[in-house]
Amino acid sequence: MTQIPGIDVPDARGRTGLDRVGRDLSGNPRVHITDVELVASAWHVLRRTTFEYRRADGTWVTEARETYDRGNGATILLHDVARGTVLLSRQFRFPVYVNGHPDGMLLEAAAGLLDEDDAETAIRREAEEELGVTVGELQHVFDVWMSPGSVTERLHFYAAPYTAADRTADGGGLAEEGEDIEVVELPFDEALRMVADGRIADAKTIMLLQWAALQGPFAAGARR
């Protein structure tokens, strides 16, 4: 009998039972999971799940969905209200390059997967690795499913102040993980203009900048 990596025997990341995820879901009585197929697990996990779904009119239908499971993540907007700046990163993103971005060099807030850490620990790690900033007090902003039609990831959003003294390293990411990140400091008002004209086109970054303008540190009456 053939043993399948990721199901019967460990895959390259030491995982087994990847086809079990979701089979025991019981929170929605209108959904009955009938099968979970492991489609791919080279690094992250692609599953095809078949389920019975009771529609609003009471009829039951059989449906199938593919879900991409890359784990959950966290992102952060670092802001210096006194100087009116935010600290972002620029790096090459192949998925956006292949889908129409002119050069794939995306300007965005620091972010990363949680891996085995909690969200606060993970985003402190990412801010230090990518931007070279030792983060002090964190402000939790919100948690969002960014692409709920196909990707399971929930992204935890944070904000934190920074000063020149908090920039304790060069940043740039981890070379051993293939990261080549440019640290970019921008006037906050310029960052908003870049959202408007498309120079900033990353969803999480736009959400954080708009939050900062409407409710956060750069909102009317909040600037000191």
Automatic annotation (TrEMBL):
<feature type="domain" description="Nudix hydrolase">
    <location>
        <begin position="69"/>
        <end position="208"/>
    </location>
</feature>
<keyword id="KW-0378">Hydrolase</keyword>
<dbReference type="InterPro" id="IPR000086">
    <property type="entry name" value="NUDIX_hydrolase_dom"/>
</dbReference>
<feature type="compositionally biased region" description="Basic and acidic residues">
    <location>
        <begin position="10"/>
        <end position="23"/>
    </location>
</feature>
<comment type="subunit">
    <text>Homodimer.</text>
</comment>
<feature type="region of interest" description="Disordered">
    <location>
        <begin position="1"/>
        <end position="24"/>
    </location>
</feature>
<dbReference type="Pfam" id="PF00293">
    <property type="entry name" value="NUDIX"/>
</dbReference>
<dbReference type="InterPro" id="IPR004385">
    <property type="entry name" value="NDP_pyrophosphatase"/>
</dbReference>
<dbReference type="InterPro" id="IPR015797">
    <property type="entry name" value="NUDIX_hydrolase-like_dom_sf"/>
</dbReference>
<protein>
    <submittedName>
        <fullName>NUDIX domain-containing protein</fullName>
    </submittedName>
</protein>
